[in-house]
Input
Amino acid sequence: MLRMLLRRLFLGAVTVVIVSVIIFAGVEILPGDACTAFLEREAQGKLLENCREAQGLNRPPFERYLDWAAGAIQGDFGVSANGAKSIAELVGNRLKNSLLLAACALGVGVPLAIVLGVVTGLWRDKGIDLVLSTGAIFAMTIPEFVSATVLILVFSVWLGWLPGIVLTSASAPAAEFFPEILLPVIVLSMVMTAHILRMVRSSVIEVMAGDYVQMATLKGVPYWRIVFVHALPNALLPAINVVALTVAWLLGGVVVVEVVFNYPGLGRMMIDAISDRDLPVVQAIALIVATVYVGVNLTADLLTMVLNPRLRTHYMRQR
Amino acid sequence: MTDAPATPAPARARALSRWGGVLRDVMSRPSGAIGLTLVVFHVVLAIVSPWIVPYDYRAMDATLMLKGPSALHWLGTDHLGRDVLTRTLMGGREALLITGIATPIAVAWGGLLGIWFGLVGGRADEVLMRVVDAFLSLPWILKMLVLIVTFGTGIEVLIPTLAFFYGIPVIRIARAATHDVVARDFVSAARARGHGRITIIRKELLPNVLDALMVEGAMRWSWMLLAFSSLSFLGFGVSPPTPDWGLMIADARGFMSFAPWGVLGPVIALSSLIIGINLTADALAKALGLDRAQKAPV
Output
């Protein structure tokens, strides 16, 4: 068990290292660097030389990679290309805001998805399942900017119930984001609920068709006892992994939603940094998001393993 | 099981009739019938729309800015006085062309690489999987935007970029599907007969992995469309005045409070196409006996 755990941790670390190499190499291979982007048309001759000297861009790539990676481990991502501000400081607030958004969306989406998923799974192919499953396909396939636009049109423009745009500044405390955060949370939790719901539904159907559920039925165990005591613990286990993927998606993939609602999160900062070709900031955000992704998935894998007796013994026998 | 075919011709005919059966199965399901109809409708529309639209999609008219629906302009006009119906009808052409070329490329290279390493295994396979994981852990929009901002938003940049990044998850799917097949007797038999790896892939693995790849391809297509229209929406996709739904929604959003007709056309068009593809993929997965409900957003 311990060896398994260490092996997983090691593989996760390896993945993060590879990501950092890809990020660094990617920026390195692309034409232009932080200085040409910052100086734009004046990027030639002495000015360019001086800038490169100041940013330490004249040293060999390998050396710079080690420097960058060593700094990143300590939470120091250097300074941004244009403002000469500390990136850790810039990213900090944005990361906090993105986490707030993600936490709200998860708080709404996960419980809702599990309840609806169990309902659709138990009443498979009945009216309520058809309605909810079809709704789920709509919710997860319609692009976020489309659903966001429609929701703003209906709830903000026509009904005037909720603010359609976030005007709070990036450094404001969490409480000030209400009620502006509500529409973005609804858009995000719609997509998320749909994905987790489908997963839970198929898992419930699979478990309810299992031999031991049939056995319990034949023994005369009451239906609701079978559902809650025998079936659900097993059926909900795979949901952990989907929730983990969703968390990662929330932190990186919500760029569009943040742009639509003008929400000051990590995603919008990423777009701005890419448009400005502020490469140090892009690198920092990429590394943070990738690390969160790997970390969350690793946690989910380990959690599934700990909670699933079958997997646990399987790995123990293997070793 | 019937006897092995003596000549390749009946085998091909049988494969064709199998796909005919799958098509009939898909069409017999409500989701498949609706989905496939929507997809075919959009593809046909994309091809013929230049000849059936009432106006020139570029024609601006300052006197007609943001006019509501009328007999002359069924869906009204946009902020430059262009006909919204014309632009909505033509708005899927770029998206369908680009994703229609990029999807098969993505499935082909990801699929072949996945099958190869699923069969061969070993150290190289371990390394490849770590690299795939690393790529998947980066947000798609970041990967694509960095390339697009550097190289431009032309079709010759968008197609390879989409094809490259959307092929990476296919490697995983193809590899997993190959692992399911590789341990089976007929692959061992082929090995014992002394067939090379290429022959085994072509004759034994590919036909068995193809089902999974087809469903995966349909899914990738819808995700790619989503990515493409999101990019246009953010201003990193096709460039004006080319009509594109994502771009149209982005443009019309600012006038939404008093001219909502500008967003409704493209919203309905884009949603119906993506839902159509997803319903088709769903029905196809069921027809082929593969469940895709367990897929998560990546």
Observations:
- Chain A has two domains: 2-72, 90-276.
- DSSP finds 15 helices and no strands in chain A.
- The first helix of chain A runs from residue 2 to 29.
- Chain A has a mean pLDDT of 80.
